[in-house]
Amino acid sequence: MSGGFGWSEARRLCGEMAGVWRSERRWVWRGFLSAAVLVFGVAGATLTPRFAAAQSEANADEASEETALRAKIAADPEDVEAHFDLGNFYYNLGRRPQAEAEYRRILEIDPKHLGATINLGVVLNESGKSEEALVAFDQALELDPGNSHVLCNRGQALYALRRYDEALALYEEAAQRDPESQLAVYLIGVSFADAGIYKEAIREWEKVIAIDPDSETAATAREGIQVLRTLVGIGGPGTDSK
């Protein structure tokens, strides 16, 4: 950590903040951020009729892509890459049950398919099946030990189960294995922000931006920093300035 703030200290502070994590203050800062995203989403959906026309065209393209992928699978039911593309297609549309089914089908054909194993874990975690997601991520780590991305995903499943100290330890391990992993560093910042350790969260997110300023993760980190600096009021009267 910057400023002499070590990992052991992070774990100690996060342990002390367990009560805060479980209180109504949990994810206060992220609640502000989510609300802002929702507002922009509503505004975008009501701008002009051109938006509806573009959406209709996009829907037609999606239907065409789905038809093409299903045709490939019909021609060769064991075409793993076609199943994988279809699973990712469904995932990107938010159709998690269909995505899960495709990833499971792949693993019936090829139990050691790393991508399907990882993506299955992601879908399970996002569907509220975090315990099952842990099993998938453990299997992925058996296939690719030390994969920093999988470590982060496993940490997120633990976080969803409120096993915060274990999650932070995995983010730590991922960052140590791959110091350029924006995801690992970003999630460490999330842990600090969620615990009310806002200055350290900002420091971590500034590292995210430094790694790759033009990435989507960096953009998200900037939004988080702005939330903490403006809405939470770091350094202002009556705020937590740890």
Supply database-style keywords.
about 240 residues, mainly alpha, Serine Threonine Protein Phosphatase 5, Tetratricopeptide repeat, globular, disordered N terminus, TPR repeat, repeat, Ycf3/AcsC/BcsC/TPR_MFPF
Please characterize this protein's 3D structure.
This protein has 13 helices and no strands. With 242 residues, it is an all-alpha fold. It is globular and about 60 Å long.
Structure described in brief:
It holds the Pfam family TPR_12. This is Tetratricopeptide repeat protein. This protein has 242 residues and is mainly alpha-helical.
Q: What is the general shape?
A: globular
Sheet-strand content, in percent, reads under 5%
Percent helix among the residues? Answer: over 70%
Characterize the largest beta sheet: strand count, sense, and whether it forms a barrel: none
Distance between the ends: 14 Å
pLDDT averaged over residues: 78
- CATH topology call of the domain at 2-47 and 111-231: Serine Threonine Protein Phosphatase 5, Tetratricopeptide repeat
CATH superfamily of the domain at 2-47 and 111-231: Tetratricopeptide repeat domain
* Residue windows where pLDDT falls under 50 for at least 5 positions: 1-53, 235-242
Q: Pairing-aware structural class of the strands and helices?
A: mainly alpha
Work out the helix count. Answer: 13
Radius of gyration: 20 Å
What is the CATH level 1 assignment of the domain at 2-47 and 111-231? Mainly Alpha
CATH architecture title of the domain at 2-47 and 111-231: Alpha Horseshoe
**Can you count the beta strands?**
0
Write down the secondary-structure element order. HHHHHHHHHHHHH
Transmembrane segments: 27-47
TPR repeats: 80-113, 114-147, 148-181, 182-215
Keywords: Membrane, Repeat, TPR repeat, Transmembrane, Transmembrane helix
Pfam families: TPR_12 (PF13424), TPR_16 (PF13432)
